[in-house]
Structures are given as structure tokens and as C-alpha cells.
Amino acid sequence: MVGVFRLFVIWIGACTISCNVNPESNESDHSNGIEVAKVQEMKEIERQMSVGDFSSAKQKLLGHFKKYALDKDSITYRFVCEHLGLIYYQSQMADSAIFYWQETEKLNLQFKQTKERAATLSNLGSAYMFKGYYQTAISHFLEARGIFEKLGEQSENYWVNYLNIGVANMELRNYSSAEKYFSAVPDDISVGLKAIKQINLAKLFALQKQSSKFRYWIEEAEKSVANSPYYAPIFKEVLMEFALDFGWRNVLSTHYNSFEEIKGQASVYYDITLCETANYLGLKSPIADLNMLEKEIASEDFITLSAFYQLKAHLYEKSGDYKQAIEQLHESDKYNELLENQKSRQDLLDFTLLSERKDMEIALEQQIEQNELQEQSLRAQVYFILALVFLIVLIIVGAGFLIYKQKNKSKLDEALLQHQAEHLKWVQSQQMDLEQEVKYKNEKLQSVLGTVTKLAILKKQIDGFFKSLDETDTGDSTYKTLLKRLKLDFNSFFNNYQDLAIIANLDGQDTKMVETVKMRFPILNENEQRVLLFIIQKYTSREMATLLSCTEKNIEYYRTQIRRKLEIPKEQNLIDFLDFALKSHN
């Protein structure tokens, strides 16, 4: 039954939200102070979502979330939050959807956007229902319904709320309330709404083991689904699951080919139920490898996991392997127990959320009353101060409760402190190792810099000597040729020393790095290879400039050339890329 519930919630959420997105009017947008560029961007996001390109729309919306919040552009910010909620809800990430829709709700309250608030409350109710917080969901749906009724609006959204309340009551086993809400939905609103209503009524009576009413409503739903094929998978899953429960072999046999048509296209639960149906009818299993099916089940989907192991138990029982059948039944029972525990936790959280919501509503009403009294009389200030004192007392009481609770967790706190102390020791140890490494690097660098400085002085003296010899006019061509060759030999020596400086800075175990770099990156010239070796050793541009006797601008130019020739993206860390490239080469 879990598969039916999930498909139903997604449909309700999409319907509710899509009916309230309306950025079509340029005049309306301008009247609310939105620039033309923002209007165009909002329309582009709408277009991407309409064609199912949620990834691109999400990327744009997240990029603008903080910006619009800081710009105090409440209309655009509301648009961003509302649509991020929709995208996350379509991705079944209900917690994120709730966060963004709560932001939308704050703006609705701030600017008294009544109709928009009804839609947001409906969306929040759908998200809470998806998480299993049915009482909290019902409170949102009822508040949304109240707003619709105040506006005198009974559109499709209004009746969608009725269906939502019915589903939540059905999951809470309040079957009479669920039937009341389902039955109240008119059949002439839309074909899809009529189909969903009938499917849920069929499911409702099946849960109560009323086979005759289930048969009536499932047959009515079959007629409606014929005109609305989008809901055919939901209909087939409900029919197949409860026909198995009632033992309707003829019905299952008649519809089996239809069931098999969407194998692998609906939920995993649907495929498991299809295998159960085939086993019940004595047919060949439609899925050859059940182990592949098991891999598709989410680890927290206890209903589907229980159904899967129950299926395996039936198959083992049919083959006569009763030992394995019992083991699989034990696995199924284990997940049923986990499901009950999960429901208990959800009920507790549901109660907590509902209490918090009521407290928030009470606090909001008190704040409104205080604001009205403050505008009428100075006496409102007294009430405001009393309210603050009351809140302070609550905070003090709450703090006292937290302190009391904290004492009961002393053992846990001690263990946490011990863990933190051990972590601190580890951090200090890492810091000492790092300091030793930095000290070693600095000593090594100072040694190399000293050598380079001496050689630079020597080079300067030799250059002066050659300059004085050039100024001496001997008139001997052989002498000039020898002098020119000697000068080239000295320049070659100092260029080779740059390679020696690099090798001197490498650890003994990394002396082969120079040759490795030359072999791995032959596209780089000698200067770029020298800079690359220093980058690997994590030298700064300034340190490289000193070691290679050039300016920092030269070093930055070499860095740019390395990125361009090796096609390294700007956002990619250069050191990480080189480490990976050299390790993969080795």
C-alpha cells in the first residue's frame, strides 16, 4: 500500500502548486516593483519546470535565494522559496520542501497574502503527510480550507484539500472521517479528481475488509481511469493488492495481462505485488531475478522490504523448502516490527509538531492583539511588558528544565568530553608535525636561497667582467669569438643551476620527480616544467621567483600557461590536479 500513498501525494502536491503559479501579467509584476529582467528570469524558470527540467531551475533558484533575501525583494524571494519547495517535493525531499514553504508562509503572513497563503498551507500539509505526520498535515489542510471558504472559492484546490484530509484520516484509521471527506468531493470538478476519489474510497473499504463496497468503487474507478490513463498505475496497484487480500482469483486472472504491461514502470512495491499475483495464479514469475529487485528498495522502506521477504517465503513454501520459507518470514516480521517503531516515532514527532504549531498560532494571535492595543492606548505597553515577562519566565523555566535534563545525561557528556579531549590531542599532534615540516622546509629554503644569492652575486660580477671585456677593443676577431662562446657557457651554467635548485629542494625519495614531470608533461617548456615542480612542493610564487631568478609576474604567466596547456579548469585546484595526474602516471 505504500506505493499507492506515494503516487497519490505527488499528484496532490503538483496540482495544488501548479494552480497558484501566475507570473503571466507584466503589468501586475511592474505594479509590485519587479524589474523586467527579474520577470523574464522568473518566466524562464517557469518554462524549465513546465518541461521537467528541474535541475536547471533548481540551480538558478538556489543561486538567487540569498541574494533576493538580502535585497528585501519580498515578491521575488517568495517566488524563489515557493518554487524551490516544489522542486524538492517532486524529488521526494520533504524536509527541504518544508523549509522553503515555511519561508513562503512567513511572507504570506507578513504581507497578508490570503489566497497565496491557502496554497502554501496546502503544500505544507502535503509535505507533512508525505513524512507521515498526519495530524500536522490535517491542521494545515483545515486552515487552508477555512481560508478558501472565507474567500468564497470552491475551485479544484479546495476539493484537493478535502481529498488530502481524507487520505490523512485514512492513514490514521479514522475511517468514518475519511469516508465523509472523500464522499463530499463532487464528481464534476475534473476527471482526475474523480478517479483519485474513487480509488481512495475503494482502498478505504478494502482496509475495513468490506469486499462488496470495495468491488463497487474499484469498478467505478476503472471507468474513470479509462478517461484518465495517468492514474492507471495507481488503480492497478490498488486492485491487484486487495484482490489478493480477498482471494479474487477470477479478477486477478482477468486483469493479469494488464497488470504486467507496466512491469518495471511503477514502484518496486508494484512489481513485488505482481510477482505475488503470478505466484497465486500459478504463473511464471514476471521478474526472473528477485535479487536485482531487492537492490532497488530503499533501506528505510520497511513496508516494501517486508512485502519482498514475504514474497520470497511464499516462493520457498511453494518449492517445498519450508526452512527457507520460515527464515524469510522472520525477515518480513523484523521489518514489520521496524515499521511499527517508525510509526511510533512519527506519531510522537507528529504530536510535537502539532503542539508547536498550536503554540505558534497562539503566539501569533497574542502578537496581533498586542499591536492593536498599542495603537489604541498606552496601556498596550503594559501588556507588552507583561508578555515579555511571561516569556522570560518561560525561558527561565525552560532553562531549568534543560539543566535538569542535562544532569541526567552526565555519562554521555563525560564520554563526549573524553572524545573531544582525544580529538584535541590528535589535532595538537598534527599541528606539531606540521610545525616540524614547516621548520624543515624553511631551513631548506633558507639554505637554497643563500646559495642562490651567492650565485646571483657571482653572476653579476661575471657579467660585469664580461661587460668590461666587451668594452675593450682589441681588434682581434678570434678573441671576440672566444669571449662570446665563454659568455654563452656561463649563461648555460646558470640556467642549469635553476634545475639544480629544484632538485636540491626535493626529498631524497622524490629525486626522480624531475624526470617524471618531463616525461608526463612533454607539452610544457623547460621554464614551465621548473615552475610545475615547485608548485608540487607547494612553494609560493614569491619563493619560486627568488629561486628561478625572475619576477612574480613571470611565475604567474607560467602558471597560466600550465593551466591552458594541460586544460585544467579554473575552479580545479592546481596542486590536487597535479598530485592525481602524477599518482595515476606512477
Would you mind describing this structure in some detail?
The chain is an all-alpha fold. The protein has helices spanning 2-18, 26-31, 36-50, 54-70, 74-90, 94-111, 114-130, 134-150, 156-171, 175-184, 191-207, 211-227, 232-246, 249-261, 268-281, 290-295, 302-319, 322-376, 379-407, 410-471, 477-504, 513-520, 526-536, 541-547, 552-566, 574-585. Helix 4 (54-70) packs antiparallel against helix 5 and helix 7 packs antiparallel against helix 8 (134-150). The longest helix is centred in the C-terminal third of the chain and has 62 residues, at 410-471. The chain is elongated.
Provide the descriptors you would attach to this structure in a database record:
single chain; mainly alpha; Serine Threonine Protein Phosphatase 5, Tetratricopeptide repeat; 26 helices; disordered N terminus
What's the assembly state of these chains?
single chain
Mean pLDDT: 78
| Highest-level CATH class of the domain at 1-185 | Mainly Alpha
Secondary structural class = mainly alpha
CATH topology of the domain at 1-185: Serine Threonine Protein Phosphatase 5, Tetratricopeptide repeat
Q: Which architecture of the domain at 1-185 does the CATH hierarchy give at level 2?
A: Alpha Horseshoe
Give the overall form: elongated
Instruction: Tell me about the largest β-sheet.
Output: none
Distance between the termini: 55 Å
Radius of gyration, rounded? Answer: 37 Å
- Count of helical segments? 26
Assess the beta-strand content as a share of residues. Answer: under 5%
Order of SSEs, N→C?
HHHHHHHHHHHHHHHHHHHHHHHHHH
Contiguous uncertain segments of 5+ residues = 1-33
